[in-house]
């Protein structure tokens, strides 16, 4: 049987088995009636076969139409209500970045540890996945956690889970992505927090994601304009993340990950009011992982910390 | 009448049937007779059914073992794409409308032909041309995008013959639009005297609802495929994420067609089953008007539920909620139909002929297919099940257990009318039972596989899934054998079957009032309808008495 | 009416046949509406996602040629209606003249469109052209993708329409004026689509 390895799993299974029960019931009613009628009213029996009064068939029709509608609406309410909490991302989650490409999963922990086709997570801690794809659409599916989310090129998608049982679980790519789709699999290893910490410190440590982004910030020349002492006018990045930005056409956008990413890759798309668009497009210049790092760096800048690093 | 054994083309003594009206190849290929076009369709969809079936058999054989040992990954991907494309567009969609619909609709409404006979012939030529394009794509090396052609895989990354296949599907779309226009116009304008809307047989109503969906959904697919061709051929970016295009937009457009397309496949099946059950249970259809409205409601709401294919695709949660809600709503008219078929059996006088076995099998399989649809309409359960074998099993229950069973049932039911010959009832019954068993054997284990998390379109899989895959693959072999059986006994019937009378099933529809096979112009004089369809009598009568009133007689 | 219309299987009365042809064509137009509806949906999405870039791109569309074409097509609809009425009334010379005028106007539309394409290409207004002036600007790229797609598709429709109109010249119109009626219906539809495209393509830019 499939383990219920996340906090979400029991609620999904409850609905699943509830629906199985409902299906068995309806199959039993329909199948039972078909069998009973087939036997009782087979040709040649002397069962009573008089006409049905008109009103009766109408009442019956209305009866089962209304009751089916009630059942359908009830299941909708039940399932939708169970899904609502999952739509809200937990605030204090461990944030893991996932980049999918044909045909592998590249995973990066906030401390900078990287993994391929594998993900180690601590048990009992909400984990938020920030995912994007380098080429086609993939999908991050972990049956034991009952989660699945398509990973799209040119955009971030997120999902989250909180593992509740230690163990190794399958990770499948569940959106057909070309030749080796069936080999785009991996293992999710859920560990006790202490074991996770030990594992983490034993890994070769790169710079953490934001730190790596900070280096890129200088290396790719961002600081030349966005830095504190730059001569070219460019909007400051400090405190940008999560704030409201007014654009040249007067509209407002929230500076979320997608906005930051778009503004790095295609700066002309949304230009901040008061600035002209002189920034070059970094699409194809910065790799998918570099963009992820840059976004992480910008997110790490709050008001107290200067962008001129 | 003398019984002769000289074969299909033997001439009846006193009249010319549509089969004998001309014997040259030309008289078939250039015929505008709806009955001959139906035969042309029947022959060509049979070819495609066996091509698609061969691909399915290969797929299941590969999945006997967890390792990808029979085919390479690329070959496997091409096989399932081929299977999907052929079965959806070249078998299921034209199956009942192209064959039974073309043959029966004018007969049922009492017309000489469909409204636009030449357009009807053109639709078959479009179908064949499209089929050749698709077969060309197959012979040159295949397509590896899946039948869904998701971007940017299909536009930027696939190195296979996407253009040819997409163009083939674009063309076959026109064939289904032509059929749809013809059927709607025929029903609106060519009903014979006395054939009011509420006297139309449910099969005609089913064709009407189907045609509405064909006419309104197919052009959207045409547009989506055109955009794919444009993006591949000219590089015009619409879905390309590198220039700000949205690949999910393609999914919206695609499913706006492809979900209603499911109803193009299942509505005709519902029509066929309603006819069979009423006739073989010798009973008026329970809740005729509700059946009609249910089909129309399905056709309309069918356009509003496409987003349930995209719960994990990154669409907004609000959109998912609305689509989930509407998907539950559409379950209601489908349930009504199931209850009404069951209710029709009540107080009937049931004959267990082969068509009836197919029809009863349909009711069971369609119910299970529909109920598992509720799982997929529930967002949290769908997140777990989408793109797994659960989905594969679900839609095969609807499309194979439902639509194909009904097609076979209808083929047997009207076989005497179409060919003028009877088939061997015992062989046919055994085939029906064999197929029912083989079908469940193949597809029920896939529900379990899906719940356990096995993704679809995998040619290799973790070994713990093997038990269920072996069951499913064994069932597929049983099923494949089952589909060959009708070829033999129906083929035998075609050449040596006993001659059928005009109304061997004692049914009420207008198609049974003319000779079997029907004359070239369907009726010797235009029939006049004087009663409702399904006037099978409620009371017991002395043995030997007719227990039905044909639509041409007053009730 | 000058003479009795030709009846084709399966019809027995001319009025019913006419009704069927017109009804059938309306059904076909319903599919066309859904087809172009898909394009308009794409337009709406593209414009909503980046209105500023979209307008920047649209500013480069040639308003003059677009407007000339609108006038040409509107006039052609009028001439074809004249032809259809003339055919119904049995005035064959008038019908022929009006059909020829329609053909001329339709061809002129395609010619103007051809000049416009040439000008667009010389200004590299093709999204995959290396010198595309708006590369990196999402809205403008999508505007020009849409522009090429939809105008080519419209031009194909118009070419088919020209074929249908030309066919009228070879028909026994006094007895088959119904064909003229449905041809006119189709022509008007192609015209109306252009009437929607004209503001969407040429009047959006600042």
UniProtKB/TrEMBL annotation, chain A:
TM ranges: 15-39, 60-80
GO biological process: ATP synthesis coupled electron transport
Keyword Heme attributed: yes
An example molecular function term from Gene Ontology annotations: heme binding
InterPro entries: CcO_II, CcO_II-like_C, Copper_CuA, Cupredoxin, Cyt_c-like_dom, Cyt_c-like_dom_sf, Cyt_c_oxidase_su2, Cyt_c_oxidase_su2_TM_sf
Organism name: Sphingomonas chungangi
Gene transcribed to yield this protein: coxB
Task performed by this protein: Subunits I and II form the functional core of the enzyme complex. Electrons originating in cytochrome c are transferred via heme a and Cu(A) to the binuclear center formed by heme a3 and Cu(B).
Span of domain Cytochrome oxidase subunit II copper A binding: 91-202
Protein name, as recorded: cytochrome-c oxidase
Catalytic activity: 4 Fe(II)-[cytochrome c] + O2 + 8 H(+)(in) = 4 Fe(III)-[cytochrome c] + 2 H2O + 4 H(+)(out)
Location(s) in or outside the cell: Membrane
UniProtKB/TrEMBL annotation, chain B:
Key words, A-Z: Cell membrane, Copper, Electron transport, Heme, Iron, Membrane, Metal-binding, Respiratory chain, Translocase, Transmembrane, Transmembrane helix, Transport
GO biological-process terms attached to the record: electron transport coupled proton transport; oxidative phosphorylation; respiratory electron transport chain
EC code: 7.1.1.9
Catalytically driven reaction(s): 4 Fe(II)-[cytochrome c] + O2 + 8 H(+)(in) = 4 Fe(III)-[cytochrome c] + 2 H2O + 4 H(+)(out)
Transmembrane segments: 38-59, 79-104, 124-143, 163-190, 202-228, 248-273, 285-306, 318-336, 357-377, 389-411, 432-454, 474-495
Pathway participation: Energy metabolism; oxidative phosphorylation
Keyword tRNA processing: no
InterPro entries named among the record's database cross-references: Cyt_c_oxase-like_su1_dom, Cyt_c_oxase-like_su1_sf, Cyt_C_Oxase_1, Cyt_c_Oxase_su1_BS, Cyt_c_oxidase_su1_bac
Main location: membrane
Pfam family for this entry, one: COX1
Annotated membrane topology: Multi-pass membrane protein
Cellular compartment(s): Cell membrane; Membrane
MF annotations from Gene Ontology: cytochrome-c oxidase activity; heme binding; metal ion binding
Ranges where the Cytochrome oxidase subunit I profile domain occurs: 28-530
Region: Disordered, residue numbers: 505-527
One GO cellular component term noted in the UniProt record for this chain: plasma membrane
Entry similarity comment: Belongs to the heme-copper respiratory oxidase family.
NCBIfam families, alphabetized: CtaD_CoxA
Role according to the record: Cytochrome c oxidase is the component of the respiratory chain that catalyzes the reduction of oxygen to water. Subunits 1-3 form the functional core of the enzyme complex. CO I is the catalytic subunit of the enzyme. Electrons originating in cytochrome c are transferred via the copper A center of subunit 2 and heme A of subunit 1 to the bimetallic center formed by heme A3 and copper B.
Protein name (database record): Cytochrome c oxidase subunit 1
UniProt organism field: Sphingomonas chungangi
TrEMBL record, chain C:
Regions crossing the membrane: 20-43, 63-83, 95-115, 146-165, 185-204
GO biological process, one term: aerobic electron transport chain
Keywords annotated in UniProt: Membrane, Transmembrane, Transmembrane helix
Bilayer disposition of the protein: Multi-pass membrane protein
Cellular component, GO annotation: plasma membrane
Subcellular location: Cell membrane; Membrane
Predominant place of localization: membrane
Domain (Heme-copper oxidase subunit III family profile) ranges: 1-206
GO molecular function, one term: cytochrome-c oxidase activity
UniProt superkingdom: Bacteria
InterPro entries from the UniProt entry: Cyt_c/ubiquinol_Oxase_su3, Cyt_c_oxidase-like_su3, Cyt_c_oxidase_su3-like_sf, Cyt_c_oxidase_su3_a-hlx
Similarity-based family: Belongs to the cytochrome c oxidase subunit 3 family.
Name by which UniProt lists this protein: Cytochrome c oxidase subunit 3
Organism: Sphingomonas chungangi
